UniProtKB/TrEMBL annotation, chain A:
Domain of life: Bacteria
Keywords: ATP-binding, Cell membrane, Membrane, Nucleotide-binding, Translocase, Transport
Subcellular location: Cell membrane
InterPro entries membership: AAA+_ATPase (IPR003593), ABC_transporter-like_ATP-bd (IPR003439), ABC_transporter-like_CS (IPR017871), ABC_transpr_CbiO/EcfA_su (IPR015856), ECF_ABC_transporter_ATP-bd (IPR050095), EcfA2 (IPR030946), P-loop_NTPase (IPR027417)
Membrane topology category: Peripheral membrane protein
Function recorded in the entry: ATP-binding (A) component of a common energy-coupling factor (ECF) ABC-transporter complex.
ABC transporter domain location: 3-245
The protein, known as: Energy-coupling factor transporter ATP-binding protein EcfA2
Record-level Gene Ontology MF annotations: ATP binding; ATP hydrolysis activity; ATPase-coupled transmembrane transporter activity
Family per record: Belongs to the ABC transporter superfamily. Energy-coupling factor EcfA family.
UniProt source species: Lactobacillus equicursoris DSM 19284 = JCM 14600 = CIP 110162
Pfam families assigned to the protein according to its UniProt record, in alphabetical order: ABC_tran (PF00005)
Automatic annotation (TrEMBL), chain B:
Function: Transmembrane (T) component of an energy-coupling factor (ECF) ABC-transporter complex. Unlike classic ABC transporters this ECF transporter provides the energy necessary to transport a number of different substrates.
Compartments, record wording: Cell membrane
Record protein name field: Energy-coupling factor transporter transmembrane protein EcfT
GO molecular function: transmembrane transporter activity
Source taxon at top rank: Bacteria
Transmembrane residue ranges: 21-38, 72-94, 106-128, 148-167, 246-264
Family: Belongs to the energy-coupling factor EcfT family.
Membrane topology: Multi-pass membrane protein
Subunit annotation: Forms a stable energy-coupling factor (ECF) transporter complex composed of 2 membrane-embedded substrate-binding proteins (S component), 2 ATP-binding proteins (A component) and 2 transmembrane proteins (T component).
Keywords: Cell membrane, Membrane, Transmembrane, Transmembrane helix, Transport
Gene that this polypeptide is encoded by: ecfT
Keyword Transmembrane helix: yes
Automatic annotation (TrEMBL), chain C:
Record's signal peptide: none
Similarity remark: Belongs to the ABC transporter superfamily.
Keyword check for Amino-acid biosynthesis: no
Domain ABC transporter: 6-243
GO molecular function: ATP binding; ATP hydrolysis activity; ATPase-coupled transmembrane transporter activity
GO cellular component: ATP-binding cassette (ABC) transporter complex
CDD domains assigned to the protein according to its UniProt record, in alphabetical order: ABC_cobalt_CbiO_domain1
Name of the protein in its database record: ABC transporter, ATP-binding protein
Record organism: Lactobacillus equicursoris DSM 19284 = JCM 14600 = CIP 110162
Main subcellular location of this protein, as a coarse class: membrane
Matches recorded under Pfam families: ABC_tran
InterPro entries in the record: AAA+_ATPase (IPR003593), ABC_transporter-like_ATP-bd (IPR003439), ABC_transporter-like_CS (IPR017871), ABC_transpr_CbiO/EcfA_su (IPR015856), ECF_ABC_transporter_ATP-bd (IPR050095), EcfA_1 (IPR030947), P-loop_NTPase (IPR027417)
Length: 286, 265, 282
């Protein structure tokens, strides 16, 4: 199965003086089960696109196929629950959505909405509490007594607990300390490896290089590139023109090249180290 | 992306936009008083022309004003019809039980309709061409005499201005939280009254906590920037009269003369 | 003492209803005109320090703890004098924007200081232009990006001409472009206005701009030094939850492959040079 967008456009406030184009004729196809990165500047249409994945916004024109559902401008607001169980979103700073009296109950909220029994809901809540790296003893605490980083984990557990087939996360690691962000990214990578689709909205090109299989680049509501990371990061002039940054390793390789030590463009720091080592040790390579 | 209209302000560039908000506010009030001076068709004709002139001067599409009148249209029509059918006088065309259709009734119905519509139209002129903040400034100016009664007008105006400033921020936050809970399977429009009331909790609690956080952060920031209360502060934002404010002044004068003359006909 | 603009002497502070102090017996000093980065993981007490500097919080015992800012000792009656000298750019761009428009917000501090309006108009226009927001002087906050709002916050501080500017995680909610713009701006206005800058941060790029780095853990100052010295302590960096700089990570990986880079190499430029030399020897 795949996620298909066919000529999808979205207009904000149609017919009013504040009318604005959110999405401009988007067509693409994403393979399920992949780790997909969605990049672009603030205001490029990333979050508008994200909200189309589970029909929080419906296209003004065009058609979306996702998780066995078809979304068109005419799609009714009723009966979207099934879709939202399969495709779920984690917004930026998701700790703002916590509301329950205990951590456990907050994580159970989603599963219960989607028809899990009380026992099932508690079971998955405890499981995911642990998976996001929290100790079992926070389960009965108020989420508002936790640190910012812990609250973030609770919020993410609250979405992952009903194990959506497709999860789309907007900058889930923003503001976390480096250790925390690595743990989070590994969690999502593992989730994908277990057969789910992960869509990551991010500004961090190192994360794109390290984790993504496929990249969507947005600008002014349009999809300006859809390719694998290696291809996206290949064209330096194009990146520069669109004010997109490069992975750190790629930048460093460029500095090396300018100093006369030319190596093949690496994506990740491991590739960079491999390339340098290969050259210095005189190991022949293609 | 998430621009919302606070109040009903619409950006524009005609001279109406440049008129001092105090002048606009006072003219609006004055116009409404003038409406009640109209007693005959000449009076209503004059005030209608003046009302429409203000509408045209905004340079905005007619739809904007229709949107202002639309929500009230049934109330206006109902009131106008009541006038029409309950008032007798002049030639009677039709009569049944307590209902009468007479020439005076018809005329009065039309007058009531005009009165209502004009009030809404001129208020719309004011609200679509004046930012809420400017309206607040104008209100503060009008309330100034209250200082004599030890009312802290400076603080009230700071509170209003901060409240207006945070409306879009909190609105964005509300939408975000609703979307987040919808993603978690919340349904805000489903089920009976109790179920619906309950479904609001996951939205209200985070919103409340967020507002509290905003308030705490804001008070820390204000204190750190030297805010010690509204005493002894100077003001950056002031309203200044300009030549363009002569327009509403003459508008009011000519309107007054016309209204007074038509009454004498 | 004249070149020290901020001095903390045995400062202890506890939040109400907590068992252990958030800041314990903290002593340090900051040189006038310098840039200091204060780093540490969340809850290490680093943000508390910024609030202590301008008297938003007061030490537990003003007798035993002494805080001096630009020669003025913090006490109940000097708090407002100290706030004249210290401006803070807070973390959340939205929650510190008081005014209805950019100019109004920049004027807020001046209004509080009862600056006459004619002067205020000039200062505000200048400050707004200084941070590159002249085209947005009348804009409302809802139409600005996070980075633009932080620039306005900086303008608001410049307008009142303080001696010290504290960046309290001011870039942590911004996208990379916004962050870079803020750091470039702070670097420029620091020179132009002869400011002392203290940045409280998680961010390596931001900490790397500093002349000195103070490392806090659990309310205690555990280390202090120039950035490259501190960054070289890989274990310490991990402990305080900071990223290991790219250069050190690459050096680690290379050493795992049998390529040894001298200890003295601590910047990307040096690493490039060192690798090129190795390459030529081949």
């Amino acid at each position: 199965m795949s996620i298909k967008f066919k000529n999808v456009s979205y207009i904000y406030n149609p017919g009013s003086p504040l009318e604005a184009v959110g999405l401009d004729d988007l067509s693409f196809e994403l393979e399920e089960g992949k780790f997909i990165a969605l990049v672009g500047h603030t205001g490029s249409g990333k979050s508008t696109l994200m909200q189309h994945f589970n029909a929080l916004l419906k296209p003004s024109s065009g058609e979306i196929e996702i998780a066995g559902y078809k979304i068109t401008p005419e799609t009714s607001n009723k009966g979207l629950k099934g879709l939202r169980q399969k495709v779920s979103l984690v917004f930026q700073f998701p700790e703002a959505q916590l509301f329950e009296s205990t951590v456990l109950r907050d994580i159970e909220y989603g599963p219960k909405n989607f028809g899990f029994s009380d026992e099932e809901a508690e079971k998955v809540a405890r499981k995911w509490l642990e998976k996001v790296g929290l100790k079992a003893d926070v389960a009965e605490k108020s989420p508002f007594d936790l640190s910012g980083g812990q609250m973030r984990r609770v919020a993410i557990a609250g979405v992952m607990a009903y194990e959506p087939d497709i999860i789309c996360l907007d900058e889930p690691a923003a503001g976390l300390d480096p250790q925390g962000r690595i743990e989070m990214m590994e969690l999502f990578k593992q989730y994908q490896a277990e057969g789910h689709t992960v869509i990551l909205v991010t500004h961090n090109m190192d994360d794109v290089a390290d984790y993504a299989d496929d990249v969507l680049v947005m600008e002014h509501g349009q999809l300006i590139k859809h390719d694998v990371p290696r291809e996206v990061f290949k064209d330096r002039d194009w990146l520069f023109k669109h004010h997109l940054s490069e992975p750190h390793s790629s930048l460093f390789a460029d500095k090396l090249g300018k100093a006369g030590f030319v190596i093949k463009q690496p994506l990740t720091i491991n590739e960079l180290a491999d390339e340098i080592a290969a050259r210095l040790k005189g190991v022949p390579h293609e | 992306m998430s621009k919302i209209i606070i109040g009903r302000y619409l950006p524009g560039s005609t001279f109406v936009y440049r008129v001092d908000p105090r002048a606009k506010l006072l003219t609006t009030f004055y116009f409404i008083i003038m409406i009640f001076l109209a007693t005959n068709w000449q009076g209503y004709l004059a005030i209608t022309i003046f009302g429409l002139a203000a509408v045209v001067a905004t340079g905005l599409k007619a739809k904007v004003f229709w949107d202002g009148v639309k929500p009230m249209i049934w109330l206006i029509l109902f009131t106008a019809l009541m006038q029409t059918f309950f008032m007798a006088g002049g030639t009677t065309y039709w009569h049944w039980w307590i209902f009468t259709l007479s020439s005076e009734g018809i005329i009065n119905g039309i007058y009531v309709f005009l009165r209502f519509s004009l009030i809404i139209l001129v208020s719309t002129v004011m609200t679509v061409t004046t930012k809420p903040l400017e309206i607040a400034d104008a209100m503060e100016w009008i309330l100034k005499p209250l200082k004599l009664f030890k009312v802290n007008v400076g603080m009230i105006s700071l509170v209003i201005s901060i409240a207006l400033r945070f409306v879009p921020t909190l609105f964005d936050q509300t939408v975000k939280i609703m979307n987040a809970q919808r993603s978690r399977g919340a349904d805000f429009n489903d089920g009976g009254l109790i179920k619906r009331a309950k479904s609001v909790v996951p939205m209200l609690v985070p919103l409340f906590i967020d507002s509290l956080e905003v308030a705490l952060d804001l008070s820390t920031a204000m204190e750190s920037r030297g805010y010690k209360g509204s005493e002894g502060r100077t003001r950056y934002r002031i309203l200044t009269w300009s030549k363009v404010d002569l327009v509403p002044l003459f508008y009011c004068i000519i309107l007054t003369i016309l209204m007074v003359t038509t009454r004498m006909l | 003492m004249s070149d020290k603009i901020i001095n903390f002497d045995h400062v202890t502070f506890s939040y109400p209803d907590t068992e252990s102090p958030a800041v314990k017996d903290l002593s340090f000093s900051i040189e006038k005109g310098s840039w200091t980065a204060l780093i540490g993981h969340n809850g290490s007490g680093k943000s508390t320090v910024s609030k202590l500097i301008n008297g938003l919080l007061a030490p537990d015992d003003l007798e035993k703890s002494t805080i001096t800012v630009d020669g003025v000792k913090l006490a109940a009656d000097t708090v407002w004098d100290i706030r004249e000298k210290v401006g803070i750019v807070f973390q959340n761009p939205d929650n510190q924007f008081v005014g209805a428009t950019v100019s109004d917000d920049v004027a807020f501090g001046l209004e509080n200081r009862a600056v006459p309006r004619e002067e205020m108009v000039k200062i505000v226009a200048q400050a707004v232009a200084d941070v590159g927001m002249a085209d947005y002087a009348g804009a409302e906050p809802s139409s600005l990006s996070g980075g633009q709002k932080q620039r306005v916050a900086i303008a608001g501080i410049l307008a009142v001409k303080p001696k010290v500017m504290i960046l309290d995680e001011s870039t942590s909610m911004l996208d990379p472009e916004g962050k870079q713009q803020i750091l470039d701006l702070v670097r420029r206005v620091k020179e132009e206005n002869d400011l002392t800058v203290i940045s409280i941060t998680h961010d390596l790029d931001e900490a790397a701009l500093a002349d000195q780095v103070l490392v806090m853990d659990d309310g205690v100052l555990i280390d202090q030094g120039i950035p490259r010295e501190i960054f070289a302590k890989v274990d310490l960096m991990e402990k305080i939850g900071l990223d290991i700089p790219f250069v050190y990570r690459l050096k680690q990986l290379l050493s795992g492959k049998g390529i040894q880079i001298p200890e003295t190499v601590t910047s990307e430029e040096e690493l490039v040079k060192s690798l090129c030399q190795l390459n030529l020897k081949m």
